[in-house]
Design a protein that fits this description.
Elements (H helix, E strand, L loop, with lengths): L1 E6 L3 H12 L4 E7 L2 H10 L4 E4 L8 H11 L5 E5 L3 H10 L4 E4 L4 H12 L7 H12 L12 H11 L4 H8 L3 H15 L4 H10 L5
Helix pairs in contact: 2-3, 7-9, 7-10, 8-9
Length: about 210
């Protein structure tokens, strides 16, 4: 039996995953978590075969929690299930130790197949993501500006590029306005930009946002 922890701040998503997996005889949703700290706490206290982890959760982001999980339970497979397209976070997630990356638009059968694959110790990547990874390995060039950002900076950069204000981002991430302002300053410095509009143009040009 594959024991699964579903970590997502939306109850409807957790319920949806449970409903999909009820029909699967060799899988069971053993626990749920609605934020990063609860996820880490459950991982440390219980045994699971797979963690299904969302990226956008209140407080510490999913990628930070992923790094914590891998440092504490390096062999535990973590499959990212996110609303964000692969272009935004997939390669970062795999670099941080994820066993695979799926969007929430994926078909139920794809989710089931991905869980089976990662629980067996393999990686799960879509064909389009595999192509991106292969291209990255072939081309040994200097990193693009956004690739120099930390995971949290990258998350804040995308939110700024989408037109969200510093206070909106602070509220959404459960952080102070001062903290987000500091992140913004660092992001602008690393990317050599001064205005949010420049971030938006850059993100659109690099297919980071639609």
């Amino acid at each position: 039996m594959i024991r699964i922890l579903v970590a997502d701040d939306h109850a409807v998503v957790r319920q949806g995953v449970k409903q999909i997996l009820t029909e699967v005889k060799d899988m069971v949703v053993k626990d749920e978590a609605e934020n990063g700290s609860a996820t880490l706490e459950k991982v440390l206290q219980n045994d699971y075969d797979v963690v299904l982890l969302d990226i956008s959760m209140p407080g510490r982001g999913g990628l930070e929690i992923l790094e914590d999980i891998k440092s504490q339970r390096p062999r535990l497979p973590v499959l990212i299930l996110s609303m964000h397209p692969e272009e935004q976070y997939a390669i970062r997630a795999l670099r941080a130790g994820a066993s695979g990356y799926l969007t929430k638009a994926s078909a139920p059968q794809e989710l089931i197949g991905a869980i089976r694959k990662v629980s067996g110790g393999d990686k799960y990547v879509t064909s389009s993501l595999a192509e991106k990874l292969a291209a990255e390995m072939e081309i040994d060039t200097e990193k693009l500006p956004h690739e120099r950002l930390s995971n949290r900076e990258h998350q804040v950069m995308l939110m700024l590029a989408q037109g969200k204000s510093v206070s909106d981002i602070a509220e959404e991430l459960f952080l102070s306005v001062k903290t987000i302002s500091t992140y913004r300053t660092r992001i602008m410095g690393k990317m050599g930009m001064k205005k949010n509009a420049e971030l938006t143009l850059y993100a659109v040009h690099n297919n980071l946002i639609n």
